[in-house]
Amino acid sequence: MDQFFNSLRKMPLRRGPARIAGGIAGGIADKFGWDVTIVRIALLLSFLLPVFGIGAYIVAWILIPAQDNSIILQDWIRRF
């Protein structure tokens, strides 16, 4: 399982420092050099398609590493 999480850490995408909820919009904006407000609006619009928007956001939130390389899913698994 550690190999899976280590491969996620090798991705250049991180949950961003400009966070309101999970930091996904901030991470995307930081990676591509976009304005975080535009990314947040795009994410909110994607939530109009609940299965895709909200589901994809939750999956990204638990799998994309934070700035300190911590991954939420890995932390949850280690607790049990």
Protein architecture, described:
- The chain has one domain (2-79).
- With 80 residues, the chain is mostly helical.
- It has five helices and no strands.
- The protein has helices spanning 2-9, 24-32, 36-46, 50-63, 72-79.
- The protein is globular and about 35 Å long.
- Helices cover 62% and strands 0% of the residues.
- The model has no long low-confidence stretch (mean pLDDT 85).
Explain the layout of strands and helices.
Layout: H1 2-9, H2 24-32, H3 36-46, H4 50-63, H5 72-79
Helix pairs in contact: 2-3, 3-4
The overall pLDDT average reads 85
- Our count of helices gives 5
Strand content: under 5%
The major pleated sheet works out as: none
SSE-based structural type: mainly alpha
- Summed up, the domain count is 1
**Residue share in helices?**
55-70%
Rg estimate, integer Å: 13 Å
Question: Tally of extended strands?
Answer: 0
Distance between the termini: 14 Å
Summarize the structure.
The protein is mainly alpha-helical. The protein has 5 helices and no strands.
Jot down its keywords.
80 residues, mainly alpha, single chain, globular, 5 helices
